[in-house]
């Protein structure tokens, strides 16, 4: 039995009924008494640091599914696809082309080389390597074309593109956005401290099958 056949059989047995859109993960920007800026999923308990929640993208702008073939609408509704990528990342570009050529309506979330985005990705996927692809709640870490196609097959996506020529992909959205409090009236807002650049991400191999 091939891997794709096993994936399809598991889906049919109902083991994939728990898959849904990925939940958001909490990340905080913490400015300590010494002015040091860090990003963490657990705010400090002492109350001496300034803590600001960071909005974490759990998927870029949602694709418009209206007007798509029923088979494609059904797969995209049950198992939405999101690509997590960054600039100057050849595996990310190759993964995007794979999805486009197959006709997958997907959302894209882009990461900047910041501590906030690295912390958010670590919380979301347990890795700082890109690309990361999510199909429902299944995470595929790194680009392995055969594995990506296998999971897309199992989720019911057509093998050949069925997107109409009028379809327009949604614009990518950023991974994080710090919700800074508004300055008090009559005061000048202090410039925000720039987070240190994170190490360049490298692709990693995919996870074990969990469908």
Q: How are the SSEs ordered, and which strands pair?
A:
Blueprint: H1 3-12, E1 27-31, E2 37-40, E3 50-56, H2 70-78, E4 81-86, H3 90-102, E5 106-111, H4 115-125, E6 132-135, E7 138-141, H5 145-154, E8 173-174, E9 176-178
Parallel strand pairs: 4-5, 5-8
Antiparallel strand pairs: 1-2, 1-3, 3-9, 4-6, 6-7
Explain this structure to me?
The chain is α+β, with helices and mostly antiparallel strands and 211 residues long. The chain has helices spanning 3-12, 70-78, 90-102, 115-125, 145-154; strands at residues 27-31, 37-40, 50-56, 81-86, 106-111, 132-135, 138-141, 173-174, 176-178. The chain has a domain at 3-8 and 57-178: Glutaredoxin, CATH 3.40.30. Helix content is 25%, strand content 19%. The strands form two sheets. A five-stranded mixed β-sheet has the order 7-6-4-5-8, sandwiched between helices. Helix 1 runs parallel beside helix 5 (145-154).
